[in-house]
Amino acid sequence: MKDILLQVAQVLTVLLLSPLLHGFIVKMEEKVQRGQGPSILQPYRDLWKLFHKTQLVPETATWVFFAAPVVAFVAMMIVPMLIPVLTNFPLPLSDMGDILGGGLILTLGSFFILLAGLDTGQPFGGLGSSRAVMLGILAEPTLILVFVGITFLDHSMLPFVANHLLAQNPVAYWSPAHIFLIFAFLILLTVETDRLPIHSTIPYEIYMIDEARILEYSGPLLALLKWASWMKQFILYTIFLNVFLFPWGLSMSGDLGSVLLALLIILAKYGAVGLFMVMVDTVQSRLRFYRYQEPLALSFLFAVLAIVADQL
Amino acid sequence: MLIFHLGPLASSLFSLLAILALVLSFVMLGSHWLKNHVYAFSAESWVIAAISASIGYYGHYPELYLIAALSALFRGTLLPYLVLRLVKRLNINREFTPLLKPSSSMLLGAALVIFSYEVARRLGIALNLADNIAVLALTCMFSLKLIGFLMMILRSEAISHILGLLVIENGIFLGSQIIVPGMPALLELVIIFDLVTIVMAFGMLVRYLQSHAGTTSSRGLQKLVG
Known about the structure:
Chain A is built from 11 helices and no strands. Chain A is an all-alpha fold and 312 residues long.
């Protein structure tokens, strides 16, 4: 019974804290640029507002237009069951998919948003979708290689095993294989969460990548899409932190106190990585679109080196 | 072949340092600014000096401390200084005529790493190398050499050719440090001084090219100059 409640709590954590993370990053970005910035709670207000608006649908839209936000949202709610968000031990449904399965479900969500961008036949949606596909083609092999690399390291496909191994074994933690996997995943994180140098802060359709796919949406469906993209960011941070970079600080027993403590630690460490991303966003200049292959080639290289180093 | 046994943390340290040297050679492969090449080469030499020193510490080879200090001084400081002076004198900031884009050359480098891993693994099986560190050192050695060759092939500036040669040399030095740590100190000293001579000679050659042919790019030299 307690395990089931914990599993529900994991999903709720991702669901409820992801807008907070996004709000924090936006606020800090503005602060760094000497602006005031919106409140940290602004994403919640945005969601509230969008859910109370009228739903407008383009005439050319088909069922894909309605299905995409729901599929993306549900996919982002399935993944937190598979990965260690609050507890470092597997929960009842955690073994229904491994780390590769989680990656595939994340990709399914992005795939449906891509289809939705193409569905209405508007030029900007198509533009955004084609750009996102190109980035996806470049990023996907690295994602698979990173997962394969962590599998070689701990001889298991379950993220919980990797978490245990890295938390308890300093030799594995400081091995070159693991350190290169961290670097490779960090570059992937900037790509998948649409940060600089991949994305532009200018809110203008020509420069958009991920945002351009959802320009046709309004009202509750837009709210679902935005929420799904924030959840995706939160989930990727979770995999990066709780599996790769900082496997400590999760609840070991599953008691209420330790879960609350784990929640506090989560707030602290996600905030730290968020600040790092703000730094990347501010320091890096935006690359031309056809130079995106360079950071991605670097990330691929790190993943290959990690696997080679791991075989030794 | 690697006589002494290493603890797990020490072997983790060794593999980290060896792979760090490999990554720095990829920095040289991926960047087109000559200054970055020189800095990366300098950092790589310092890493190799650190490997020598730590092998001296764990394997009790006191003469390796001397080698480490000398290689940090010569490879890590003097050679980069000379090459940087050359870069400044020639007024060449970046390689303008690469055959491949940085990302493609990095991918080619990754393929070479996998190839050299395969070679090193077979060698390890054939020679019955018990310790994985030896295989790792062989991998890093072969890949550094191949990446040096790649740099010499893909780039056309004379300075890139020097740096490619130095990377190959660094690779040999790294491998020999780990695999045959007790290699006579005299031999190592000779190699280090050889390198200084090579860079000096290259510097003179490059200046001669610049003053007589007006270019230091090997692609420019294919045309006849009257």
